[in-house]
Amino acid sequence: MRAVILTAGEGTRMRPLTLTRPKTMLPVGGKPLLEYNVEALRDAGIKDITMIVGYQMEAVMEHFKDGKTLGVNITYITQEERLGTAHAIGQVASIAKEDKDAIIVTNGDIILQNKLIKSLMDKYHNSHAQSILVLTEVDDPSSFGVVELEGDHIKDIVEKPKPGEAPSNLINAGIYLFDPSIFQAIEKTGKSERGEYEITDSLKIQIKEGKMVLGLVSQDKWIDVGRPWEFLELNEHYLEVSETQIDGEIEPGVTIHGPVIVKEGSIIRSGTYIMGPVYIGENCDIGPNTFLRKHTSIGNDVNVGNAVEIKNSIIMDGTNVNHLSYVGDSIIGANCNLAAGTNIANLRFDDGGVKVTVKGVRVNSGRRKMGVIFADGVKTGINSSFNPGVTIGLNSSVGSGAIIYRDIEDNKIVIHHQKQEMKDKK
């Protein structure tokens, strides 16, 4: 059986982090989210994987190549126009017909467990259904495709119902199994109100034609990974199941509690205190006297200086966090430089939920503690401070002593903290 992973989209709600990579290539727990899904498919016995790529596809292809290092065979199909999930899945019609077998299809930005894949294949072999859709239960289904079930047969799928009008709390989890008949339904699928070809519309065509379309209710953890704070939650999830692996150098006087991963070429200097689970990538220099708290994930080639505290954050490759700085509940992009004394606030004075800008709108993250989102290439001056929920754009710089209380666009220089005066980079 072949698996198809949909990873062509940008992830606009994750900007500016996705300006330089697709959302599925953002790191959590030390590796891209997409890699976890490849491993889950492999561990379920699926070795042939086709990735539907598009936006920033070079990042995906350069990382995974032909898949052999992960023990799988990966091929790629480019979705030139992103016209919806049915359009994306339709790209593999010729391959699937040649295989003459069912396919498993999954969104690339979800948590995927190998036991769930096995359950999906078992259900298919026992039922001979034309399509099976993995379902998960949520408290508020109004933002999702909601399923009406009769036994395990899907009778209808309602997209984003109004509050109180949902037929159930079971939603489409973005994991499917299809036999080749799905491609006939895709050919009959018209554009939705969003102007896209939706796979849920293809499934509704199958239901109307009397095809067997079943639901498989999953009890696994499920996260709608679309906004920055959800990546922090995902990072926590993967670190919680990690085990200690120390391949780097640990100097005398380092204290470690809980599971910690330290990759080859990294050094943890004396006086550093680590509360796991924590991930530290290759060729990092940490400390001395640094405090790394739970759920911190540090990429490759990162320097963390003396007396720095980092909590529940993702620090991407090539970034420097210099001495006497604090980073809490934040996502810091690649090749950033946080100057000495940079302080990131992660708690509102009124203890309310921290708001973050998503697609131009301030959205309550629902998190009591939430720091900042820095795109790649951000530079901060000494003793600069950042209020909770601030987003700093690609390659922007913040001057010494500045206090940042609102978002900064890409390629800007902030030179004054009171009016937050900005100018374009030359």
Comma- or semicolon-separated keywords:
39 strands, UDP N-Acetylglucosamine Acyltransferase, domain 1, single chain, alpha/beta, 8 helices, 8-stranded parallel β-sheet, Spore Coat Polysaccharide Biosynthesis Protein SpsA, Chain A, 2 domains, 426 residues
Give a brief description.
The protein has 8 helices and 39 strands. By secondary structure, it is α/β, with parallel strands linked by helices. A 10-stranded mixed β-sheet has the order 13-16-19-22-25-28-33-36-38-39, with no helix packed on it. The protein has an 8-stranded parallel β-sheet with strand order 12-15-18-21-24-27-32-35. A 7-stranded mixed β-sheet has the order 5-4-1-6-10-7-11.
Any overview of this molecule?
In the N-terminal section; belongs to the N-acetylglucosamine-1-phosphate uridyltransferase family. In the C-terminal section; belongs to the transferase hexapeptide repeat family. InterPro entries: Bifunctiontional_GlmU_arc-type (IPR023915), GlmU-like (IPR050065), GMPPB_C (IPR056729), NTP_transferase_dom (IPR005835), Nucleotide-diphossugar_trans (IPR029044), Trimer_LpxA-like_sf (IPR011004). Residues 3-239 form the Nucleotidyl transferase domain. The protein has 2 domains: 2-217, Spore Coat Polysaccharide Biosynthesis Protein SpsA, Chain A (Alpha-Beta Complex), CATH 3.90.550; 228-414, Hexapeptide repeat proteins (UDP N-Acetylglucosamine Acyltransferase, domain 1, 3 Solenoid). Helices cover 18% and strands 31% of the residues. It is built from 8 helices and 39 strands. The strands form 8 sheets. It has a 10-stranded mixed β-sheet, with no helix packed on it. The radius of gyration is 23 Å and the shape is globular. It starts with a strand and ends with a strand.
